[in-house]
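Hi Y.,

Following your request, here is the sequence exactly as I used it, all 205 residues.
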Amino acid sequence: MQAELDAGIAAAAGETVVDLGCGNMPYKPMLEASGARYLGCDIDATAPVPITPGSPVPLADASAKLVASFQVLEHVWDLSWYLGECRRLLRPDGHLLLSTHGTWLYHPHPTDFRRWTRDGLTQEIESHGFTVQRITGIMGPLAWTTQFRLLGYREVLRRLPVVRNTVLPALTIAMNVRMEVEDLITPESIRQTNASVYVVVARPR
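Below is the corresponding structure, written out as C-alpha coordinates. Let me know if you'd prefer a different format.
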Protein backbone atom coordinates (compact mmCIF):
# COMPACT_ATOMS: atom_id res chain seq x y z
CA MET A 1 0.00 0.00 0.00
CA GLN A 2 2.88 2.37 0.62
CA ALA A 3 3.83 2.09 -3.05
CA GLU A 4 0.35 3.23 -4.05
CA LEU A 5 0.54 6.20 -1.71
CA ASP A 6 3.97 7.06 -3.08
CA ALA A 7 2.49 6.97 -6.58
CA GLY A 8 0.57 10.16 -5.89
CA ILE A 9 -2.72 9.33 -4.17
CA ALA A 10 -1.72 10.18 -0.59
CA ALA A 11 -3.74 12.91 1.09
CA ALA A 12 -1.77 16.11 1.63
CA ALA A 13 -1.33 17.93 4.92
CA GLY A 14 -4.70 19.00 6.28
CA GLU A 15 -6.72 16.75 3.98
CA THR A 16 -8.86 13.95 5.41
CA VAL A 17 -8.24 10.21 5.15
CA VAL A 18 -11.09 7.89 6.15
CA ASP A 19 -10.07 4.34 7.10
CA LEU A 20 -13.36 2.47 6.65
CA GLY A 21 -13.00 -0.67 8.74
CA CYS A 22 -9.92 0.43 10.65
CA GLY A 23 -9.74 -2.38 13.26
CA ASN A 24 -6.92 -1.50 15.65
CA MET A 25 -5.67 1.11 13.15
CA PRO A 26 -2.38 -0.51 12.05
CA TYR A 27 -2.22 1.72 8.94
CA LYS A 28 -2.73 5.00 10.78
CA PRO A 29 0.99 5.98 10.85
CA MET A 30 1.33 5.31 7.12
CA LEU A 31 -1.84 7.20 6.18
CA GLU A 32 -1.14 10.28 8.29
CA ALA A 33 2.60 10.46 7.50
CA SER A 34 1.93 13.26 4.99
CA GLY A 35 0.20 15.34 7.66
CA ALA A 36 -3.28 14.22 6.68
CA ARG A 37 -6.14 14.10 9.18
CA TYR A 38 -6.87 10.43 9.91
CA LEU A 39 -10.36 9.19 10.81
CA GLY A 40 -10.70 5.54 11.78
CA CYS A 41 -14.17 4.04 11.36
CA ASP A 42 -15.31 0.61 12.50
CA ILE A 43 -18.26 -1.39 13.81
CA ASP A 44 -16.47 -1.55 17.17
CA ALA A 45 -18.12 0.99 19.46
CA THR A 46 -14.70 2.10 20.71
CA ALA A 47 -13.57 3.21 17.23
CA PRO A 48 -13.02 6.96 16.77
CA VAL A 49 -15.97 6.93 14.36
CA PRO A 50 -18.35 4.04 15.21
CA ILE A 51 -20.37 2.78 12.25
CA THR A 52 -23.48 0.63 11.92
CA PRO A 53 -23.76 -1.63 8.85
CA GLY A 54 -26.54 -0.40 6.60
CA SER A 55 -26.57 3.12 8.09
CA PRO A 56 -24.70 6.20 6.83
CA VAL A 57 -21.25 6.71 8.28
CA PRO A 58 -21.52 9.84 10.48
CA LEU A 59 -19.26 11.94 8.26
CA ALA A 60 -20.10 14.57 5.68
CA ASP A 61 -20.46 13.91 1.95
CA ALA A 62 -17.31 14.48 -0.12
CA SER A 63 -15.21 15.07 3.00
CA ALA A 64 -12.29 12.70 2.28
CA LYS A 65 -9.39 12.97 -0.14
CA LEU A 66 -8.66 9.29 0.42
CA VAL A 67 -10.85 6.42 1.60
CA ALA A 68 -8.81 3.40 2.69
CA SER A 69 -10.24 -0.11 2.97
CA PHE A 70 -7.71 -2.77 3.91
CA GLN A 71 -8.89 -6.40 4.10
CA VAL A 72 -12.46 -5.35 4.88
CA LEU A 73 -14.52 -6.06 1.77
CA GLU A 74 -14.58 -9.84 2.22
CA HIS A 75 -16.22 -9.31 5.62
CA VAL A 76 -19.03 -7.08 4.29
CA TRP A 77 -22.35 -8.61 3.29
CA ASP A 78 -24.01 -5.47 1.88
CA LEU A 79 -21.52 -4.32 -0.72
CA SER A 80 -23.88 -1.68 -2.11
CA TRP A 81 -24.01 0.01 1.28
CA TYR A 82 -20.27 -0.23 1.91
CA LEU A 83 -19.01 0.81 -1.51
CA GLY A 84 -21.78 3.41 -1.68
CA GLU A 85 -20.45 4.96 1.53
CA CYS A 86 -16.90 4.89 0.15
CA ARG A 87 -18.10 6.85 -2.87
CA ARG A 88 -20.27 9.26 -0.84
CA LEU A 89 -17.39 10.18 1.44
CA LEU A 90 -14.90 10.82 -1.36
CA ARG A 91 -14.27 14.20 -2.91
CA PRO A 92 -14.62 14.24 -6.71
CA ASP A 93 -10.80 14.39 -6.96
CA GLY A 94 -10.28 11.72 -4.29
CA HIS A 95 -9.19 8.09 -4.44
CA LEU A 96 -10.31 4.78 -3.02
CA LEU A 97 -7.40 2.58 -1.91
CA LEU A 98 -8.73 -0.91 -1.27
CA SER A 99 -7.25 -4.33 -0.68
CA THR A 100 -9.07 -7.65 -0.34
CA HIS A 101 -8.47 -11.33 -0.90
CA GLY A 102 -8.34 -13.29 -4.08
CA THR A 103 -7.39 -16.54 -2.33
CA TRP A 104 -7.16 -16.95 1.44
CA LEU A 105 -8.27 -19.11 4.32
CA TYR A 106 -11.61 -18.61 6.06
CA HIS A 107 -11.13 -15.86 8.65
CA PRO A 108 -14.35 -14.55 10.23
CA HIS A 109 -14.11 -11.12 11.84
CA PRO A 110 -16.93 -11.42 12.79
CA THR A 111 -17.96 -12.91 9.42
CA ASP A 112 -16.24 -13.87 6.15
CA PHE A 113 -18.37 -13.92 3.02
CA ARG A 114 -16.41 -13.98 -0.25
CA ARG A 115 -13.26 -14.01 -2.37
CA TRP A 116 -12.67 -12.38 -5.76
CA THR A 117 -11.03 -12.93 -9.10
CA ARG A 118 -9.24 -9.93 -10.58
CA ASP A 119 -12.00 -9.44 -13.16
CA GLY A 120 -14.77 -9.92 -10.61
CA LEU A 121 -13.32 -7.39 -8.18
CA THR A 122 -12.84 -4.81 -10.92
CA GLN A 123 -16.43 -5.27 -12.08
CA GLU A 124 -17.75 -5.16 -8.51
CA ILE A 125 -16.07 -1.85 -7.74
CA GLU A 126 -16.90 -0.24 -11.09
CA SER A 127 -20.56 -1.26 -10.77
CA HIS A 128 -20.75 0.90 -7.64
CA GLY A 129 -19.74 4.20 -9.18
CA PHE A 130 -15.96 3.99 -9.49
CA THR A 131 -13.41 3.77 -12.25
CA VAL A 132 -10.60 1.36 -11.41
CA GLN A 133 -7.30 2.97 -12.34
CA ARG A 134 -5.08 0.06 -11.42
CA ILE A 135 -5.27 -3.28 -9.68
CA THR A 136 -2.21 -5.14 -8.45
CA GLY A 137 -2.00 -8.77 -7.40
CA ILE A 138 0.19 -9.64 -4.41
CA MET A 139 1.55 -13.15 -3.80
CA GLY A 140 0.99 -15.68 -6.57
CA PRO A 141 -0.17 -19.30 -6.19
CA LEU A 142 3.21 -20.91 -5.52
CA ALA A 143 3.87 -18.46 -2.69
CA TRP A 144 0.41 -18.51 -1.14
CA THR A 145 0.35 -22.30 -0.96
CA THR A 146 3.61 -22.06 0.99
CA GLN A 147 2.06 -19.37 3.20
CA PHE A 148 -0.87 -21.67 3.95
CA ARG A 149 1.50 -24.48 4.93
CA LEU A 150 3.41 -22.12 7.22
CA LEU A 151 0.17 -21.12 8.95
CA GLY A 152 -0.61 -24.80 9.45
CA TYR A 153 2.85 -25.53 10.87
CA ARG A 154 2.48 -22.59 13.27
CA GLU A 155 -0.80 -23.98 14.59
CA VAL A 156 0.80 -27.36 15.23
CA LEU A 157 3.88 -25.86 16.89
CA ARG A 158 1.76 -23.69 19.18
CA ARG A 159 0.71 -26.93 20.86
CA LEU A 160 4.34 -28.02 21.34
CA PRO A 161 5.88 -25.33 23.55
CA VAL A 162 9.06 -27.33 24.12
CA VAL A 163 10.12 -27.04 20.47
CA ARG A 164 8.06 -24.01 19.38
CA ASN A 165 10.52 -21.31 20.42
CA THR A 166 13.46 -22.95 18.66
CA VAL A 167 11.81 -24.38 15.56
CA LEU A 168 9.25 -21.73 14.65
CA PRO A 169 11.63 -18.76 14.05
CA ALA A 170 13.89 -20.77 11.75
CA LEU A 171 10.92 -22.31 9.94
CA THR A 172 9.32 -18.90 9.44
CA ILE A 173 12.49 -17.46 7.93
CA ALA A 174 12.96 -20.45 5.63
CA MET A 175 9.37 -20.42 4.42
CA ASN A 176 9.40 -16.67 3.81
CA VAL A 177 12.58 -16.97 1.74
CA ARG A 178 10.90 -19.77 -0.20
CA MET A 179 7.87 -17.54 -0.84
CA GLU A 180 10.10 -14.77 -2.19
CA VAL A 181 11.78 -17.19 -4.58
CA GLU A 182 8.48 -18.73 -5.65
CA ASP A 183 7.04 -15.33 -6.50
CA LEU A 184 10.16 -14.45 -8.48
CA ILE A 185 9.84 -17.55 -10.67
CA THR A 186 6.06 -17.28 -11.13
CA PRO A 187 5.16 -15.57 -14.43
CA GLU A 188 3.69 -12.10 -13.94
CA SER A 189 0.49 -13.00 -15.78
CA ILE A 190 -0.16 -15.85 -13.34
CA ARG A 191 0.63 -13.77 -10.25
CA GLN A 192 -1.69 -11.00 -11.40
CA THR A 193 -4.65 -13.28 -12.10
CA ASN A 194 -4.23 -15.76 -9.22
CA ALA A 195 -3.20 -13.52 -6.35
CA SER A 196 -3.73 -13.92 -2.65
CA VAL A 197 -4.45 -10.20 -2.29
CA TYR A 198 -5.53 -7.54 -4.76
CA VAL A 199 -4.77 -3.85 -4.20
CA VAL A 200 -7.08 -1.46 -6.05
CA VAL A 201 -6.81 2.25 -6.76
CA ALA A 202 -10.09 3.75 -8.00
CA ARG A 203 -11.63 7.16 -8.63
CA PRO A 204 -15.29 8.12 -8.16
CA ARG A 205 -17.15 8.89 -11.36
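The chain has two domains: 2-140+189-204, 141-185.

Thanks again,
Q.
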